[in-house]
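Example 9 (inverse folding). The structure is encoded as follows.
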């Protein structure tokens, strides 16, 4: 099969935390038979222009007006003749985070709460891609600091706990969670405090921009 007959693309699941709920960025599909169904941000890999997948990702994000992501990770590579009615299609799937303070103010941007999405809302196999990416994120949230990358650069421990709870879709025991985060030495105190419930709350930032791996899963999670 020649390159011209094979569609090779990127599918990017963008997550953000909005009003303490996990959201996914979607677009309206313009391809029959999925007109006006939701689809994920998509970018073709251009064999004549892209020297690496990373270059293709940056070009795709730039076209979407996202200048930077706080985190991005490859999920899987999928392919098949049934993926796209136009022919054999191969896609490299990534998920990434857009921190709320990096949000683009545009009427063309659609962020949908992940709890509000249904499988039949999506074009192609994008519902499955979102589901698998969400499950990957939930699984990694149990033993890494990944949810912290959904937050602005500065945050409180309450903000951090709410990010974990949004990703895991459950409540977490406050005392053990805070002890876990502080004992891991992944947070640096800033000179700022924030008033919360009439009490000052220390403001932190991440020490390292690489997710930390804990030596055991998050304790105290409860549905």
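The amino acid assigned to each position is listed next.
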């Amino acid at each position: 099969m020649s390159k011209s007959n094979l569609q090779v693309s990127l599918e990017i699941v963008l997550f953000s935390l909005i009003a303490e709920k996990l959201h996914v960025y979607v677009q309206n599909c313009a391809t029959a038979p999925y007109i006006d169904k939701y689809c994920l941000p998509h970018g073709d890999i251009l064999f004549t222009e892209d020297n690496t997948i990373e270059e293709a990702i940056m070009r795709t994000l730039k076209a979407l007006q996202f200048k930077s992501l706080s985190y991005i990770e490859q999920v899987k590579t999928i392919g098949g003749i049934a993926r796209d009615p136009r022919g054999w299609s191969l896609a490299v799937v990534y998920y990434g985070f857009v921190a709320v303070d990096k949000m683009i103010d545009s009427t063309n941007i659609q962020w949908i709460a992940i709890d509000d999405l249904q499988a039949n809302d999506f074009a192609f196999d994008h519902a499955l891609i979102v589901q698998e990416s969400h499950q990957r994120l939930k699984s990694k949230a149990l033993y890494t600091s990944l949810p912290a990358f959904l937050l602005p650069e500065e945050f409180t421990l309450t903000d951090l706990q709410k990010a974990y709870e949004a990703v895991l879709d459950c409540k977490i025991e406050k005392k053990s969670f805070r002890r876990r985060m502080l004992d891991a030495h992944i947070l640096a105190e800033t000179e700022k405090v924030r008033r919360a419930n009439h009490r000052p709350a220390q403001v932190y930032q991440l020490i390292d921009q690489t997710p930390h791996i804990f030596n055991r899963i998050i304790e105290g999670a409860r549905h």
